[in-house]
Amino acid sequence: MKKLLNIGYNAANEESLSRKIRISNLISLITIVYMAIFTPLSISFHITGSAETNIIFLLISVCNFLLHKKGLHQLSFHISCIYGIVYFSLATIIFGLESSMHLFLLIMAMIVVMLFDEMLILKIYNFSIVAIFFILMMYMKNREGSFHLDGPLREIQKIINISNLFSLFLITIVFFIFFKRDNVLYQKLLLEQKKIVQEKQTEVIDSITYAKRIQDAILPPLHYWAKNLPQSFILYKPKDIVAGDFYWMEKGNDENHIFFAAADCTGHGVPGAMVSVVCNNALNRSLLEFNLTETGKILDKTRELVIETFGKSNNEVKDGMDISLCRLNTATLELQWSGANNPLWYIRNSELLEIKPNKQPIGNYTEQTSFTTHSLQLKKGDSLYIFSDGYADQFGGPKGKKFKYKQLEAELIRIHKNNPNDQKQILDKVFEDWKANLEQLDDVCIIGVQV
């Protein structure tokens, strides 16, 4: 019996499909047994059309096994339901309501729910079953079936009717036991799979968490940042545990020169973090190994090193970064700046001004040009802002739209006179309130410096 129930079973199938196949095979098996018993009775009592109908449905049940073996599971499910509905409808007309054959339609409604998940199919079948059930009840209410026995044989018909009720009860019990047993096995399998998924998830999270420690090691320590730029803040919010965004700081050969940047590498999460390591290393080499001090030339060399690193792969790698790079002379307040796709904003006398970047990334690009070095004489009271696109691109608010740069600009103008730490807290709260229950779209990095 187990082999019959598992005809068409494939270990590659989803467990839910395997359960449906076993249920369908059980229906076919019960039908074959039922037809094998009642076909001889139909012939013995000369019930017109009944024997032929029983033989047809017996053959259909055998065909269902073959359909499952061929992998035509959905076709078998539909055939099982359709022939069940047709058979019990015909049996009700032949034997009348006293035979209780119309009650088997309720079993068919239960079987439909077991075999199909699609709501449209469930609605069509169950609507049809309910409609046929009530039509039969109304049509046969004051009618006898086309077949009935008289005299002493009438008792035999009553026995058949009682046996139908017993069969109905027995089939219901069989399906209940089978479904319960199969459901227990299914739940057990789900628990085992859940345990495996949780173990794998823990392993992955542990690995990514360790990767975060490595990425944190390449970021400048906050105490080092505060020492060199005391009137500044960093709002850094990775989308995942690790990030493609990173902030960078180094001191030049001139003690008064502080280099700092906000960078946005391709992607986020683990892929973005791997690109960030390459780009961070290229920035360090451009400044410390090649002794470049002009921001435009630093970006040119960084691009060259990034392309060289990724060029070693046989596959074409187009990853890179957008960046806003500053060199601040803390003694003279002269600022040198260069940008790849990301701008510099500075606020003077409550007016936000922008220096536009070169429209090209640090990485492979079809029309590469040298990065422009901009010089700017800052004044006391100026505020600088460099950032990635994660904050402005975040979806949220009452209409689920992007925050956008215009709104970020207005927010910075509103808060630029606050101390840096307060600015960070306000920006963080505005971001979280805007995002609300939506997922964070990208890494966020904003650096603010008060002169």
List its salient traits.
single chain, five-stranded antiparallel beta sheet, alpha+beta, 451 residues, 12 strands
Question: How are the elements arranged and paired?
Answer:
Blueprint: H1 2-5, H2 15-44, H3 50-69, H4 73-95, H5 104-115, H6 119-139, H7 154-218, H8 222-228, E1 232-237, E2 245-251, E3 257-265, H9 269-289, H10 295-311, E4 321-329, E5 334-340, E6 344-348, E7 351-355, E8 374-377, E9 383-387, E10 395-396, E11 401-402, H11 405-415, H12 420-435, E12 444-450
Antiparallel strand pairs: 1-12, 2-3, 3-4, 4-5, 5-8, 6-7, 6-9, 9-12, 10-11
Give the count of helical stretches: 12
Largest sheet: 5 strands, antiparallel
Query: What is the distance, rounded to the nearest whole angstrom, between the alpha carbons of the first and last residues?
Result: 84 Å
Quaternary = single chain
**Rg to the nearest angstrom?**
38 Å
Low-confidence stretches: none
The spatial strand order of the largest sheet comes to 1-12-9-6-7
Give the number of DSSP strands: 12
Average pLDDT over all residues:
84
Described by the principal axes of the CA atoms, the overall outline is elongated
Order of helices and strands: HHHHHHHHEEEHHEEEEEEEEHHE
Structural category is alpha+beta
Q: How helical, in percent, are the residues?
A: 40-55%
Strand content: 15-25%
